[in-house]
Each structure stands twice: as structure tokens, then as C-alpha cells.
Amino acid sequence: MCSGGCAKCLGITLIPLAVLCLLANILLFFPGGKVADKNENISDEVWYFGGIVGSGVLMIFPALVFLGLKNNDCCGCCGNESCGKRFAMFTSIIFAAIGFVGAGYSFIVSAVAINKGPKCDIGGGPFIYPFNSGDYLGNTTLWNVCKGPGDIVTWNLTLFCLLLIMSGVQAVLCAIQAINGLIGTICGDCKCCGCCGGDGPV
């Protein structure tokens, strides 16, 4: 497959992942599926916007760049018909790095949130973090200490696990595009400018 075609496939995959990460992070602002009485009742890690900024907004730009690489005009650059395409593939490496950093940020925030557990009401007082690092993950009976809101432990754990998985996939896809972009920069993007049966750029 041409490097531009590969980049387009990666871009098509990254966009729905970015949208899902945005939605997951937004849902975390409603602990247990309920509107929080106070901002302090929302887990701190939600406010780090890992899914909104890291795996969301920062991922949209690389995805759009990857989508456009397939149709990038590669002709007439400094007398070298493949120069434009090579430069575009080089640029995609930079955007892939941006996407990788964003996904990595979201991955780290999600991992910390999963290990730490959610803020919850343990009865009558302010919302606190009732769990020690990761001790609740293997012992679901500890979840009963949280009286609310809703099924807060399952809610936070599910959404942060989704963010962790999706941001991990995004990071892998961006790493693949970085390698793909490097290959496209060095070798060019298949045939272009009237080749491939005379149908124009590939």
C-alpha cells in the first residue's frame, strides 16, 4: 500500500477514536451518571482533560493531516515531481509526534485515575478518595464503601479504562504513521504524476 493510502486509513481510524475519547471525558464530569452538586465532587483527574485535550483535540489535527496525504499534489516542486509528496510525508511525522504526545498524556492520566480510584461519598462528609493505590481493583467488596453518587466506582473505572485503551491505540497508530511518514519521506509515495496507468497522482 502507498504510504499516503496507509496514512489515510490511519486518519479514518483516529477520528472516531478522538470523538469517543471526548465523549468519555465529558461523561466523567457526571459522576455515577448524575450531575455533581459541586465541582469538588468530581475526581481531580477528570479536570486534567486527558480525553478532551490529549486524545481529543490534539488528535483531530494529525487525523486530518493523515487523511489529506492521499490526495496531496506531488508535482512540480523544484523540478522534482515527488518533492511535494516527500515534504508532506515529512510533515506528517511532526503531526504524528503531536498525536503521540496527546495520546500519551491521556494514557498516563487514565492510568493514574484507575490506580487512584474515584472521589465518592462515604457517608455524610465531603467527597474523598477512599481507596489506597489500586487496592480496590482486585477486591470489589471494597467498592461498597462508596455510598454514591450512583455506581461511581464502576462508572469511573469503565470510562477511564476506555480512555486508557483508546489512547493506547491512538499512540500505536501515531507511531505507525511516524514510521510510514519516514518511509514516505525517504522512498516517496508509490508512483505519482501521471504514473499508475496515467490516472494522475496516487
UniProtKB/TrEMBL annotation:
The chain crosses the membrane at residues 12-31, 46-67, 87-108, 152-176. It is a multi-pass membrane protein. Its main location: membrane. One of its GO terms (cellular component) is membrane. The keyword Transmembrane applies. The keyword Membrane applies. This is Transmembrane 4 L six family member 4. Belongs to the L6 tetraspanin family. It comes from the Eukaryota. Keywords: Membrane, Transmembrane, Transmembrane helix. The lineage of its organism: Eukaryota, Metazoa, Chordata, Craniata, Vertebrata. It is found in: Membrane. Pfam families: L6_membrane. It comes from Xenopus tropicalis (Western clawed frog).
